[in-house]
Amino acid sequence: MNKIKRFFLNIFYGLPFGLKGANAELTGGITNDDNGIELNQEVSDERVAKHLLKGEVTQEVEELRYRTYAVANKSEDYQYLGNGLSVKNEKNPKGVRKKYKFSQDNENICQSVLSTLKQVGSYGIDKYRFEMNYNSFVRFNIEKYATRVDVKIDEDDGIVETTLHFSKEANPYDKASKPFINELMKLLKNQNDEHEVKRNEISSSINDFSFVTYKANNEDDLVTYSFMNGSKFKKMRETEHEVLMTLSWDEYMRVPLDLEAKYYSRTMAEKYAKKEKKNNTIGINDVKRKRYCSVCGKEMSVYDGDIQEASGQAVICQNCMNKAKMAENQEEKRD
Length: 335
Hints:
Blueprint: H1 2-27, E1 30-32, E2 38-40, H2 48-54, H3 59-75, E3 78-82, E4 85-88, E5 99-105, H4 113-119, E6 131-134, H5 142-145, E7 146-154, E8 159-167, H6 177-189, H7 194-199, H8 201-204, E9 206-212, E10 223-238, E11 242-256, H9 259-262, H10 266-274, E12 291-292, E13 299-300, H11 302-310, H12 318-334
Antiparallel strand pairs: 1-2, 3-4, 5-7, 6-9, 7-8, 8-11, 9-10, 10-11, 12-13
C-alpha cells in the first residue's frame, strides 16, 4: 500500500511540472532573467493555416489565395506527358473564341446537411446544376431528369445548340419518373409531327436554360452559360440507354469567372514580377514541439503524448507507466 500511496503522491508533486510544460507550449516559450524570474513570452503566430481556420483575410492569406489561382491557371497551358515531361498547349487565348463544344453533367446540388435532410421524401425543393424557366405551367421539371448536356456553339455559322440526355430507366424512388419517360418516348415517336411537338411540354416549354460548369469535358470550371428567349425543338434520337433531345437557341451568354483576377494580390504580383524566392513565414510555434509527463514532469515522446491525449488518457511517460504497472502487479499478488 505504501508504494501505491507513493505513486499518487508523485502524481500530485509532478503535476505542476506537467502544467509548466503545457504552459510553455501554449504561450510560445519560457525564459529566465538574471534574477531567476520566469518570463512568459507570447509570440504572434503568423502561420497562414491558423488565419485560414479562423477565416481571417491577412496579407499572407491574400497572397496564398492569389498564388493558388495563378498557378492553377498557368498549369492549364501545359499538358503532362508523364516521367516529369510536359508540353505547352497551343490554344486560343481565353475570351477570343467563337466556337465552344463541350459536355456537362447534371447533378443534385446540396449546400448543407440540413438541405439534404429536407429533400428526403419531399418534392419540388431539389436544386440541380441545370436551371430552367418555363413559358407555362408544366407537369415535369425537365432539369430533374436531364443527366447531361452537350453544348455546340459556332458563332460564324450561327449555331447555338444544346442536346439534353435523358435516361430510359425509371427512378424507383420517384413516382413521376415513369410518366416522364412515357411522355419522352411519345415525343420521340412523333417528333416529325409538328402539331405533336408544339403540344408536348418537354419539347416546347423551356424558355431559359442556364448552368455553371464544373468538371465539364473541354470547358473551364465556373463558367456561367445562359440560353435565353425560348428554345426551338430540332431533333431527337435514341441510344440503348438514353434519349437525346436537341434544342436550338437564338441568344446565349457566356460569363467566365476569373478567380485570379477576382482575388488579385498586388504584393504577390510584385513578387512574381521581381522573381523573388518563395519565403514561408515560420513562427516560434513551428519549432520542434515538446511533451512533458503529467506525473514526473520530464520531457517525453511527442508521439506517445499525442496518442495518449487523443485516446482520452493522461499524458504519462514510459518510465512512470512501468512504475504504475509494477505497483499494480504487486498489489494483485498481495490480494
